[in-house]
Amino acid sequence: MVEVSDSLEQLYNKLKHATTNPQIIDLSMKIIDQAPKNQAALKSCLIGLIRSRQFDEALLFIDKHKLNVDFEHAYILHRMTRNQDALDRCKHL
User: Fold this and answer.
1) Taking the alpha carbons of 12, 55, 36, 88 in that order, is the dihedral positive or negative?
2) Is the residue at 52 inside a domain?
3) How confident is the model at residue 92 (pLDDT cuts 50, 70, 90)?
4) Is the residue at 50 inside a domain?
5) How many structural domains are present in the chain?
6) Distance separating alpha carbons of residues 73 and 62, to the nearest angstrom
7) Among positive and negative, which fits the CA dihedral 6, 65, 92, 57?
8) Residue 16, class by beta-carbon neighbours within 10 Å (0-12 exposed, 13-18 middle, 19+ buried)?
9) What sign does the CA torsion over 37, 39, 43, 45 have?
10) What is the pLDDT of residues 43-73, one digit of tens each?
11) DSSP three-state, residue 70
12) CA distance 89 to 83
C-alpha cells in the first residue's frame, strides 16, 4: 500500500494550529523533507527544539542546516551553561 503524504499547504495548516512542541517539531520536519530550504519551517523546528529543552539536538540542527541564527545559538549555549561560548557567539550579533 502506498502512503499518501500531506501537501505542503496541508502541513502549513497543521503547523499553524499545532499546540505542542513535539507536534511543531514533527510537522516542521515534514515540511523540511518536502522543502529543505524553507526558512519558516527550519526556524519553527529550531524553536520547538529549544522550547523542548533539546539543546544538543538544536545545536546539531543548526549545524546540519547551516542556519545563521546567532541569537538562538547563543541562547542554546547559555542554557547549556557554556557561557563563554555564548558570549563569544554574541559578538556575531
Assistant:
1) positive
2) yes
3) confident
4) yes
5) 1
6) 8
7) positive
8) exposed
9) negative
10) 999 999 999 999 999 999 999 999 999 999 9
11) helix
12) 10
